[in-house]
Design a protein that fits this description.
Length: 122
């Protein structure tokens, strides 16, 4: 799903939930077209509380997510260092084996895979 469309969907879902929550908490009767004084104050407080809560939660989420991302990056970097160290050790072992073979007067033979042709007939 397109990230912009996803963000819009999430926003509208959140907006609808806040509207429903604050309406059910604050609107007592539907006799008048306009909100009464107490209803207006209640809706304002409800939305403000929700916005503050949401802002606080997002701050905590960003802090926690930053910590998680930092740990993941450290793990990736550590794994890359270990892999590079292992490759280096493998190359050193390979070079040591070649040196020992040359010193002993023997050649190291590397098998060559057989050539394959497109037309194999039997």
């Amino acid at each position: 799903m397109d990230p912009n469309l996803r963000n819009l969907k999430d926003f509208l879902t959140l907006y609808n939930k806040v509207t429903e929550l604050c309406f059910s908490r604050c609107v007592d009767n539907l006799n008048q077209r306009e909100l009464g004084g107490q209803e207006d104050t209640c809706v304002d407080r409800c939305v403000t509380k929700f916005a503050r809560f949401n802002q606080s939660m997002m701050k905590v989420y960003v802090d926690v997510q930053t910590t998680i991302n930092t740990k993941r990056m450290q793990e990736v970097e550590e794994n890359a260092r270990k892999l590079e160290q292992q490759r280096k050790e493998d190359r050193q072992k390979e070079e040591q084996i070649k040196k020992e073979a040359v010193t002993a007067g023997t050649a190291v033979l590397t098998p060559i895979p057989p050539a394959t042709s497109g037309n194999l007939s039997m």
